[in-house]
Backbone:
């Protein structure tokens, strides 16, 4: 009997919503401050979250290749719910640490497996050439979810900074039944038993043996880390300007609507602009955005800079992931995508505590432009090698 795997697309949308409808994201740094944590402690928690992903990211991606994408997505959805249970009923640095560890492990089981499930579902139906289109839609679903959640989370936080965490637990739970009802697509694989050596072999292939894939992963990870860092930083900057939780949540809504809208046109924009122009322009806008944000002392200047930054993110994320998918063998795709996430989280685990320390010791503005210079240097040192792996497209 021949199956159609198109139903998976809609279930993946639900998982994306459960994962990205983040009521807590636009106010979590304010929540930490309300609970008496310093900026350094707050960013330490986010670094711990990233470290837990670094530890489990590639093994979970490998398990997705061996045991199936469905199993790992179920595990990820369950842990994603449990982490918010800890946040809802706990308090203090150590309970938050347990929550971040749980959420990090859950994230690692979803990351990579969801994109691999999408690509392989389309491939099974003979539609792999439409991956960028559906990945763009999937990414937009996530950003529109995050957009709506920003305003809702800000409104709930006006009542109590704890309230968004209670609602978040229920939203995260929606991913569990969606994952359980996925249909596993056929994937070519000659491996029968999970072996740690195989994981190392894939990492070696992706980062050492395959030159083209290596620079795709490294450059994509630098840009990914930049966008991840800004997601936690801008709410502190807006709070410094004196804006309320509701305004900060509303800003998150506008930013993610921008990302979601731009992402829908990412494929056309890349084709019209060409690969090289797309990569260079988004790289400059993203890394330069940090520097300009750090130099801004006026909200009227900071907000447009933030908007442009998020628009560039909406183009860069699906385009860079598509480059990786197109040059990666199907049987190791989830593992390779997990390597990308591992690199992003690994870099962030170093950058986040540094940023927190700089913002406490110097100022938030100084920390922004210093980290911006770091990202600019990293992207500049790798973009040429990355561009050499691309065919010129007009």
Residues:
């Amino acid at each position: 009997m021949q199956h159609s795997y198109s139903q998976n697309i809609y279930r993946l949308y639900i998982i994306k919503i459960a994962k990205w409808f983040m009521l807590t994201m636009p106010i979590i740094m304010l929540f930490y401050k309300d609970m008496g944590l310093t900026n350094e402690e707050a960013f330490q928690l986010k670094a711990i979250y990233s470290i837990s992903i670094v530890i489990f990211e590639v093994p979970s991606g490998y398990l997705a290749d061996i045991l199936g994408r469905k199993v790992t997505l179920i595990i990820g959805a369950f842990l994603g719910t449990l982490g918010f249970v800890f946040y809802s009923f706990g308090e203090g640095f150590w309970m938050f640490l347990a929550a971040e560890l749980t959420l990090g492990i859950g994230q690692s089981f979803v990351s990579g497996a969801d994109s691999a499930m999408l690509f392989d579902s389309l491939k099974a139906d003979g539609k792999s050439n439409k991956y960028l289109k559906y990945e763009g839609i999937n990414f937009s679903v996530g950003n529109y979810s995050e957009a709506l959640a920003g305003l809702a989370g800000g409104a709930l936080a006006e009542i109590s900074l704890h309230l968004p965490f209670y609602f978040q637990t229920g939203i995260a739970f929606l991913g569990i039944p969606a994952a359980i009802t996925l249909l596993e697509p056929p994937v070519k694989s000659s491996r029968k038993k999970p072996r740690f050596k195989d994981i190392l072999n894939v990492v070696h292939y992706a980062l050492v043996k395959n030159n083209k894939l290596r620079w795709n992963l490294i450059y994509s990870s630098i840009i990914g880390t930049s966008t991840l860092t800004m997601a936690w930083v801008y709410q502190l900057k807006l709070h410094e300007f004196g804006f309320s939780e509701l305004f900060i949540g509303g800003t998150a809504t506008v930013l993610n609507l921008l990302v979601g809208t731009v992402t829908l046109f990412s494929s056309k924009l890349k084709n019209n602009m060409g690969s090289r122009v797309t990569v260079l322009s988004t790289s400059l806008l993203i890394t330069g955005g940090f520097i300009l944000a750090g130099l801004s002392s006026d909200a009227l200047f900071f907000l447009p800079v933030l908007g442009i930054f998020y628009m560039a993110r909406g183009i860069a994320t699906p385009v860079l992931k598509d480059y990786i998918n197109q040059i990666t063998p199907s049987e190791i795709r989830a593992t390779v995508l997990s390597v990308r996430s591992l690199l992003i989280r690994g870099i962030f685990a170093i950058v986040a505590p540094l940023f927190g320390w700089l913002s406490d010791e110097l100022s938030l503005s100084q920390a922004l432009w210093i980290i911006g210079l770091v990202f600019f240097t990293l992207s500049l040192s790798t973009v040429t090698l990355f561009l050499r792996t691309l065919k010129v497209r007009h």
